[in-house]
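pasting for ref
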Amino acid sequence: MRIDLHTHSNRSDGTDSPSELVANAVAAGLDVIAITDHDSTAGWDEATEAAAGTSLRLVHGIEISTLLDYRSIHLLGYEFDPTNAPLLEELDRILGGRDGRLPLILKALQSHGVAITEADVLRWSDNAAATGRPHVADALVELGVVKDRTEAFDVWLKPGRPAYIDRYAADLFDA
């Protein structure tokens, strides 16, 4: 049995729509995948519809941004109640933190002479629940500032680099 329990669609920082993610999993001969977008269940319905009538078993999941002792921990969760009010409130706070740091990242890049705008980034996060650093990285590649996402993070976007801006994440144990 071939299983991948950690996939992302373009509802977070993946590049495929939920339907494309399912189609690619089927084409690759996977038996089970979990859609685990960052801090969002926005792709579940589309993925469920795409998986219907295929041999693929779809697991509904999420990757929650959390902190433990000031360290980022990404917590995977599967088959939980997506209508749980406290969870939805916490996910809204997390997504708000992702969106809220975008202007600060852009300001930091611009202060270092990088000509980048919010419109440049939003083209890459069209369907995402929140706009994040991977979308900024994709815009930096498109603008010719860096050659790929890895270089964007290494030079600009990871902790300790000039355009890294911290954001809210849930407490690991609370999540």
